User: Fold this.
Amino acid sequence: MPELPEVRTVSRALNEAVKDRVISNVKVFREKTIVGTSPKKLILAVGDAKIERVTNIGKWIVYLLDNDKVLLSHLRMTGKYYYYKDKQKPTKHTHVVFDFKDGSQLHFEDYRGFGTLELKDKKDYLDVKPLSKLAEEPQNMNYIHFWDKLQKSRRAIKTLILDQTIVLGFGNIYVDETLWELRIHPETPGNQISQKQAKDILKFGTYIMDWSTSLGGSTVSTYSSINNIEGSFSQYLKIFRKDGKPCPRCKSTIVKTKVNGRGTHTCPECQVKFPI
Ligand SMILES: [Zn+2]
Assistant:
């Protein structure tokens, strides 16, 4: 599942591919992909609009149009974009096709079908759901504010970091890597996390996600950037999907457990469970 570095990579690649292109038509092959409005309304609202810029806010891809509209897209598990210079036939997993005036096309494909597109008004898209509920990305977040949020909860630190209303951008890969690096057990209750640990989580999270972005993200299982370009950060992962292998720090065997239903990789020596 794409996390912040991967979504940043996709939105940068999209920006290069479709910035300044004018949409002539949108074909929707799967209505459920369009959220919050009818496909017909979306098609009417974006037809003839130029894409000014593509960026991201957390795991949301944001298409800023030159009219009063914005398109938000979420890749969820397996959403992927393909840009073609010439018209291409849709596959059975192609849910939306953007036709551009210059004859090129952008296809949105999604094998699992959870990915979405939403139409918003430019004047208030940051103040309405889903973006209004999001926290800040770790590099922008004040650590005292983050620590305050953790203090109010007895939920597992891993679950809290994955909550996009607490801190933005972490998914399963980077949360496991960060907690291992900082020797924090993923089931530690939020209110047992020290101010220093809170600060370190944001600092290391920023560092690892920036580093991964610079390498195009981590391609593990389904993720790739547009046109199936793979990221190369997965070679630097220390603990994610390394269960059964030795911990790079202490050589103990890495274990895989579940925390709140999410597969979790920990070193039983480096990450000591908090006594509950
Ligand atoms: Zn270890």
